[in-house]
Amino acid sequence: MSAKVSGVTPELVDEFREAGYPDLSFEQLISMRVQGVRPEDGQKFAKLGFGKLTAEELISAKIFGITPELVNEFRQAGFHDLSFDSYVTLRVFNMDVGDFADCYRHRFMDLSEDNMVLVCAHDITQKDVEEMKELGFADLDSIIDMLAHDVTPRYVRAMSELGYDNLSPSTLIRLRNHNVTPSFVQRLERDGLKDLTPEELIGRKEGRE
Predict the structure, then answer these.
(1) Residue 207 pLDDT more than 80?
(2) In this structure, are residues 24 and 10 in contact, taking their beta carbons and an 8 Å threshold?
(3) Under DSSP, is residue 194 helix (H, G, I), strand (E, B) or coil?
């Protein structure tokens, strides 16, 4: 697609450069143009305290309807510390300020606003968190992140029983994201493939090995 056809003009490139985005690729400029991102959009979010959003974040803001007005609506309801990623999650799960406020009233363990977004979006319970702590995970942010990625106490126990204990939260999340299940590991073991590393398990799942 040519610059003329896409609407990416030298004037538009200059406007983004002056707005603090001097190194946008042609593909990024096309995406921003298609989604209706304006050079001043980044400045509006910066004034709200989000810092300089990336081109991808500005595109996401347009796709999911994250506007300064939406941010102010949440702040007027008392939610001043939500990150940009949390706003994306709220929009993906179709939660408005009323939905989040209703869920937030059941906050436990002094969770942050960002963590409560994940709790509300993924129906995480205090019992889930307590069980993960009993399994040896201490960092609350990591526990919420694991539960949000469906790394449940049951999953952790089942993998541990197969010899995959003491795995880091990021490794467990990576395994879960690639749909490496206990039954998949057991099937490999029946085929004589034992003691594989987490990366080897992922490779087998993806058919690379």
Answers:
(1) no
(2) no
(3) coil
Q: Are 116 and 133 in contact (CB under 8 A)?
A: no
For the stretch 26-40, pLDDT in tens is 999 999 999 999 999
- Cα separation values, 181 from 4, 87, 149, 197, 205, Å: 50, 31, 13, 14, 10
- Helix pair angle (26-35, 10-18), 10° resolution: 90
Residue 7 pLDDT: 76
Q: Average of pLDDT values for 33-50?
A: 95
Q: Shortest CA distance to 115 belongs to which of 73, 85, 155?
A: 85
For the beta carbon of residue 116, count every other beta carbon within 10 angstroms: 21
Cβ(144)–Cβ(166) below 8 Å: no
Distance CA 184, CA 159 (A): 11
The predicted model gives 186-193 an average pLDDT of: 93
Domain regions of the chain by residue span: 1-64, 66-122, 126-206
Give the number of other Cβ atoms within 10 Å of residue 202's Cβ. 19
143 close to 129: Cβ distance less than 8 angstroms: yes
To the nearest whole number, what is the mean pLDDT of the chain? 93
**Angle 97-104/113-122 helices, nearest 10 degrees?**
100
Question: pTM for the complete prediction?
Answer: 0.86
